[in-house]
């Protein structure tokens, strides 16, 4: 029996498991988007069926755009997410370059210290963070969210990027130094272009928790001027009456940026995840 024949059942089993996981992961997203285009009666009457000409209704989207200041919430989420991603990628890449390139006393200890940030949830320090933001006068500002999300994303960024930067050829960097390039030029012009797949991986893994977060916006920036998309969707949750059409429409609109980001960076994301698997 050939090797290909023996490996066929394993391949089929692996694909079956992956397809099952994909279906389970996408099922809630599909249900939310499908039901956002249906009337309230159809949502509760037949939640698993697609909208028909009789049940099709855009009342949720008109409510979100008209009643809730969704565009403003979307802008706040976009500003916070983009700014946080910029600082996480910039500072994370710089720290990863320093840890992977230079050998100094405490190098390994510093890497371990940063790795602890992955294992310890930042929400455990919510009270201390809130006290710090109150003392700094940053409550109800987008700056508070950007600072928290930057601190939250840095450990994972440093951990991933440092492993990739260790694989960059030393000969290439030494050749740049011989040519008179500064360390900043070597970092920005030689190293960063070679680790773009890992940067895309870090960007996706960092963006999703930031965009979907409800905890810190609710605690640090609950005012109307600083509400994010996830916090703004709570406007349609009432104690006695809940506007499910508006909630599903708001969630569907909030999902779009994540899907667009994945479509744009999917190739580099897959390269970043798999490039370290094969030597």
TrEMBL record:
Protein keywords: Cell membrane, Membrane, Transmembrane, Transmembrane helix, Transport
Record has Ubl conjugation as a keyword: no
Record-given protein name: Carbohydrate ABC transporter membrane protein 2 (CUT1 family)
UniProt topology in membrane: Multi-pass membrane protein
Membrane spanning stretches: 12-34, 78-99, 111-134, 146-165, 186-211, 244-265
Protein family: Belongs to the binding-protein-dependent transport system permease family.
PROSITE patterns per UniProt: ABC_TM1
Coiled-coil intervals: none
Chief location of this protein within or outside the cell: membrane
